[in-house]
Sequence to fold (178 residues):
Amino acid sequence: MFVDRDGTINPDLRYLADAARLEVFLGVAEGIRLLRAHGYRVLCTTNQSGIERDYYTHADVGAIHHRVNEILAGGGASIDAFYYCPHAPESACECRKPATGMLEKAALDWNVDFAGSAIVGDRSLDVEAGESIGLLTVVVPPPGHEASVEAELASRNITPDVRASGFLEAALRILTRG
Ligand SMILES: [Mg+2]
Ligand SMILES: [Zn+2]
Fold:
């Protein structure tokens, strides 16, 4: 299954560059542990246009992903692999969500069957990308941002298959397919 990073695993600090500032939301480690125990690969797919904008480097992003797994390890969990798009929207690449190139690359690498898989995210672009390839789409708003997440989905006329109130609920809903 595919999971967004900023706003889904960790608070979206807008162009986070420093791994030392990273926090992981409650329920993420438990949810990931559960999904992996049921045979899912957990693949993080994240837009990181801050690289092309020169706000941070590939190495910064690598350090953050290393730190995500360090924190998750404390809860007996880990992300199997991280994929990121370094491009700004103006580049019109094929990997930046809602395009599906990043998800397709990860699926090839890990032999993922889209029809039996899912995406968890906090924005319409996560849902749009997932819909395009037939994933179960799950939205989890960051705590305290429920209204703005709903407003963003409505503004793009996007409806996820599942709305969950935390990552653990998202994981349970994936296991029961909705
Ligand atoms: Mg996000
Ligand atoms: Zn890209």
Observations:
- Strands lie at 2-3, 43-47, 81-85, 118-121, 136-139, 162-163.
